[in-house]
Amino acid sequence: MVSTYVNNLRLEEIATGEQSGQWGATTNTNLELIGESLGHGTQASFSSDANAQTIVADGSTDPARALHFTVTSSGSLTGTKELEILPNTNNRVQFIQNSTSGSQTITIKQGSGSTVNIANGQTKLVYLDGGGATASVSDALTNLAIPDLFIDDDLTLQSDGAIINFGADSDISITHTADTSLTLGGAGGTTGLIINNTATDGDPFLSFALSGTQTFTMGVDDGDGDALKIGTTAIGTNTRMSISSAGVVGFGQGITENAETVSSSSNATELDCRTATVFEHTLSEATTFTFTNPAASGSVSAFTLKIKQDSGGNNYTVTWPGTIDWVDATAPTLTSTANAVDIFVFFSTDGGTIWYGFVAGQAMG
User: Fold this and answer.
1) In the chain, which residues have pLDDT < 50?
2) CATH 2.60.120: does it fit domain 259-364?
3) pLDDT, position 186
């Protein structure tokens, strides 16, 4: 009988009666090769711009035996090339790094079965099943479950349709659409937030989708002077509000503003400029108005006030803030009849130091 090399590391297995007086040397070589299999090796596996094979040597040092195997090339590769790792009966797990020249992908194979592609500059952990002529190579990290993951640098998802799922039942997901957008979706996948930065037209936008339809969209329209637009469909169509690059605000439809009904308490009524632009007040007692929270000096606060006398015709009096500058420096007299309506308009540009007051209508209602 003679020595064999049928194990996965191609170590020499001495047959009975073989190598008399050489057992120590052979054992030491095997131990060194075991150490080599746990380390790193580099090999110029591609001696030309063609598919190649690498054979793990029987009983002698070989870079392809290493746990971390760096593959290089003697010259630049011009396309994807196959590297077949032999013998095809070796069953093992191995890190393989593609450090070939030419920025090309290499395909790792062992037999006629499945293969694994490794992009240039990247490393994959692969599993060679040692199945002989039909042997397969698989990505050993497919379906890998990791309790916690810490990443010190960049994270790249290479698939053009990559999906990141969250939750035990993947109820929230982020989906990548090639060269176009990210969609943050909820259960069912028809409702979500779409983040789009299409390089071809330069129109970055956010879109809110309901039942699969982009219902509201906001973003920049480079076809209209880089204006920021908010609309109900795509950017540039059905625009409801826009802000030009010069800061001019435009509205595509009518504007709805809040009207607040205010009441008098202890003969005092507050008109808070932060809560409304139209105030309505029905007199129930004599009251003193105060105007609060105006915009800072240099900005405008403006509002309309509707005052209605009570139904009993009590002709309650109103005391105005002393900061109002009325027309002709004279405060108006309220209509005294029951249910009469008087309307006034006020604005200030200096933080409420001076309010300009105007009568918009009296004896209405």
Assistant:
1) none
2) yes
3) 65
What burial class does residue 133 get, using C-beta atoms within 10 Å of its C-beta: 0-12 exposed, 13-18 middle, 19+ buried? Answer: exposed
Residue 280: enclosing H or E segment and its boundaries? strand 278-282
The CA distance from 23 to 252, in Å, is: 91
Query: Rounded to whole angstroms, how far apart are CA atoms 291 and 347?
Result: 11
Q: How much is the pLDDT for 189? A: 55
- 310 burial type by CB count under 10 A (0-12 exposed, 13-18 middle, 19+ buried): middle
- Please report the pLDDT score of residue 363 as a whole number: 95
pTM of the model: 0.61
Q: Is the peptide bond before 87 cis (omega within 30 degrees of 0)?
A: yes
Q: Where are the domains of the chain?
A: 23-139, 163-251, 259-364
Please name the residue ranges forming H helices in 21-119: 23-37
For 38, counting Cβ atoms within 10 Å of its Cβ (0-12 exposed, 13-18 middle, 19+ buried), the class is exposed
The whole-angstrom separation of Cα 215 and Cα 192 is 10
Backbone angles phi, psi at 36, to 5 degrees: -60, -35
Give the residue among 30, 36, 1 at the shortest CA–CA distance from 15: 1
How many Å apart are CA 91 and CA 109, to the nearest integer?
Answer: 13
* DSSP calls for 98-119: E--BTS--EEEESSSS--EEE-
pLDDT digits (tens, 9 = 90+) for 75-105: 999 999 999 999 999 999 999 999 999 999 9
**What span, in angstroms and rounded, lies between the C-alpha atoms of 262 and 103?**
72
